[in-house]
Prior knowledge:
Blueprint: H1 8-11, E1 15-19, H2 28-37, E2 44-48, E3 54-55, E4 58-61, E5 73-76, H3 83-93, E6 97-100, H4 107-119, E7 123-125, E8 131-134, E9 139-142, E10 148-155, H5 158-170, E11 175-180, H6 189-197, E12 204-208, H7 215-227, E13 232-235, H8 250-254, H9 257-268, E14 271-272, H10 276-287, E15 301-305, H11 308-320, H12 330-339, E16 350-351, H13 355-358, H14 361-373, E17 378-383, H15 388-391, H16 396-413, E18 416-421, H17 427-434, E19 439-440, H18 443-455, H19 478-487, E20 495-498, H20 501-511, E21 515-519, E22 531-535, H21 538-552, E23 557-561, E24 569-578, E25 582-589, H22 594-597, E26 600-604, H23 609-618, H24 622-625, H25 636-651, E27 656-667, E28 670-673, E29 676-680
Amino acid sequence: MTGEAPLAALFDPLSVAVVGASDHPEKWGYWLAKGALSGRDRRAVHLVNRRGGGLDGVPFRPALTALPDAPEHVVVAVPAPFVRPVVAEGLAVGARCFTVITSGSGRADEHALAELVTGGGARLLGPNCMGIVDTTTQLRLSWGDFPAVAVGLVSQSGNPALEIGRLLARAGQGFSRFVSLGNQRDIDAADALESLIAHGPTRVIAAYIEDFRDGRRLARAFAAAHAAGKPVLVLTVGRGPASTVAAASHTGALVSPYTTVAAVCREAGALLLDSAGELVDTAVCLLAGVAARRGGGSFRVAVVGDSGGQGALAADAFTVRGLDVPQLSARTTEKLAATLPPGAGCRNPVDLAGAGEADLGAYARVARALLLGGDADAVVLTGYFGDYASANPAQSARECEVADELADAAAESGRALLVHTMARDTPAPAVLRGRGVPVYERIEQAATALSGIALLAPPSPNPSTTRRAPYRIPDGSYETVRDLLASYGLAFPAARFVTTADEAVDAARSVGYPLVLKAMGLAHKTEAGGVALALADADALRAAFERMRAATGAERYVVEAMATPPYAHELIVGVRRDPAFGPVAMVGLGGVTAELLADTALALAPLTGARARVLLSELRHARLLAGWRGAPSVHLEAAAAAVCAVARAAAEHPELAELEVNPLLVHPGGAVALDAHGVLA
Length: 681
């Protein structure tokens, strides 16, 4: 179920009943009831507690059946054994939505509860959730204070939501809507995100997600939000080794749940961040109207400091995060020189050299010149501004006037102005925040926010899997996988599969020398002694066969032509079927050093040729492929086509948990796969 209307009973019900209401401030039932009562001007509110009592003049009713009218939305905050009877009673009186705060009593019971609710034509949020808040409809069904502005938050955990809320409040921002997902037995992250896309007051969407469930649907929701002009900021977990599951291939070691989420966010136009603080810093910047440059290109930043040291440190902070701190045009430099005293720095970063202390208006004049000069996409003021009133309260009024002038200049220019100040809770920063100018206590906050926004890019369209495979492969052996991938257009050297030395020598007559002998059935052949290269004649082939059989005990071998094109590089191309996101394609620097280098790029499979080329360009060592120190470029179109072939084969064969080609030899004349194997689901 998608969109806003199907969940109207969740976000803007005609009536609410809180079951488990309490008059004791230390209990959840008190805060839920108190919050529900704050919306009495908009909807009917009923409080239920079988022991009686009341709150703020509203009596507690003994049961849902004792209410004068059927509640549309029922909040359940009773001990676990009583949840199901309360829900059944709510369904009987006609409730359309249930928010279950109570922790579940086990997966089976939670699924049974969800079946009861959805079978009755209603929806379930939770169980084990913190509730829901919609500041635009006066709906407060949660514990905690949620300031009202324009960030829509979807979270699987309560405390991160509270932290985000408090950080937003300090920055003069807040929530349009907050949805605590809990155990997602019915309403899930995708439902909540889709509702925020349709929610007019929400301008920025934030999400803390641990369990991605239907990851492809979430990716589509991220992309739809981007298309609607609503940036999505994501937090998740899973970067540590405890979250990595070992697998039988290099691909399994290189494609972790976190790297998959990072790749999906990049593809879908969402921004994956590391902390609640980074999320809030970026959201504040986005709410101020800061946006990535249209048409791509580096994001340009002009820095203004009232200290040479602070300006230089700020410039470095932006540079190391990939932002451009460009030279200023002669015209802008001349305007600054006319404004600033002799000896001031008129390049980027701009050093006021005491001009602000002599005249606070210098801050606004310099910022205006930079904002209107066209040399930068954002101007960052760093240093002491905002703190003059702390040392001399008599300067407070003038400092606030200059703050207004700064905000006016930003509004007139249509460009971003960010302020980093030493001050804390003084009047001028409050004026700036009130005018929508982001204010930060640390310069790295501003740098992280701008660098993140610069990374926001339109989603990358990928083809859907339209062709179902006509057969299921019986195993993941090289022989089987080679035939499969060849049917998708992937090139391999000439080869014959054998079981004895005599068969190997006979096969060599058709394959030709020099050749390669490989033992079958080994995940990592080189380490096990299962590969012999550049065998030049029958004697060398027989000797290698005997050594290999003794070392590996393999029953089957392949005699394969030796591929030695000049200026070649080894890639690894793999696909792993993620439980949430389905097939995830990976390309990286390959061969025996694949895991050592860990130079990879990921995307959902299948892929377009354009997307495959982007993956190749994202590798840290991509310049090797494009020609390094006079070497010719590899055939990038052939390399991309090979990546697409592996990705599509895996996407169309769901019986494969993993599929890998390693190495894929790419060279100026094309691409050829030298080894491959699969892991059956």
